[in-house]
Amino acid sequence: MGYKTRIINVQNVAFNQKAIINLPLGPTYDKLLLDFSANGNYTATNGVVTTIEVKANGRRIFVDTATNIHNRNAYRGLYVDAQRLMIDFTEPQSRGGANEQLLASIPSAMLKSLTVEVQFGNNGNTTPSMNVFAESRGPSENPFILKRLDFTQGFSSAGWQTLLLPSGTSGGIIKRAFLHPTTGASSTITAVDLRVNRVSIWDVTKDIIELNQRVNKMTPQGSFLTLDFVEDGNLAQALNTERAKEIELRLNLNAACSITGYVDYIDPVGRL
User: Fold this and answer.
1) What number of CA atoms fall less than 13 Å from residue 95's CA on the CB side?
2) Nearest CA-CA partner of 61 in 165, 144, 140
3) Domain 3-142 grouped into CATH 1.10.10.60
């Protein structure tokens, strides 16, 4: 049985402040809805709601911006609403049944604390409004949790550049990586060469990457390039970097820039 409930313990909702959402422990959280509609000055896409962080046992497991989350939902073919932001921990288009679909939900019964921090900016000193709703199920023994972690690396020239992704005991199971060039355009990245233990497993242009995504009913976004290992809904195709000694992500850039990446991991709760 599923539940759709309002979260009452929401504190410090004010401009230029960080709101704290304290989620009750016990349920398995599939989705969180942040509703800003009571005050039209605050939306998911105008940059006033900035960083959103989820912390489990006091450790950050998920970080992104409101605009990015909105655009990632659009990429995945999910409904988007400018004044309501859905944080979806599930894979609603996955193949193989409910267990696979809900693999990366948040099993709060296995945690000591679970909070969401929402940073508000200033929109004419107008007091923001935020109502929070959760979609959840009963306690789960599923030991996995979704992590979205970020990194930034600068490149002083165009051409082929290399990022080293965590591997071995520092690695994880990656569903997607979202790459944001500081140019603001995904077209800055023209091709990708992904190598596992120095063997190329992806050697494709940006156009082919996004063609495959459209074939699988995804909607590529102009501000970031998505490397989607589960674009066809088969979670078995996720990139397991724990099994590799070295993961090289080589990007062909048409301009010098920095890349900020956000990586979705399926990771054991025990690593918190």
Assistant:
1) 10
2) 144
3) no
CB distance 223 to 47 below 8 Å:
no
Element (H, E) at 100: helix 98-101
pLDDT digits (tens, 9 = 90+) for 13-66: 988 899 999 999 999 999 999 998 887 767 777 778 889 999 999 999 999 999
pLDDT tens-digit series, residues 172-188: 899 999 999 999 989 99
Q: Is 57 left (phi over 0), alpha (psi -120 to 50) or beta?
A: left
What would the two tokens of residue 202 be?
């992806």
Question: According to CATH, what is the number of the domain 147-271?
Answer: 2.60.120.730
Q: Where in the chain is the domain with CATH 2.60.120.730?
A: 3-142, 147-271
What pTM, to 2 d.p., does this model score? Answer: 0.93
Q: Phi/psi at 98 (nearest 5 deg)?
A: -65, -40
Q: CA 192 from chain center: how many Å?
A: 20
User: Are 224 and 71 contacting, i.e. CB atoms less than 8 angstroms apart?
Assistant: yes
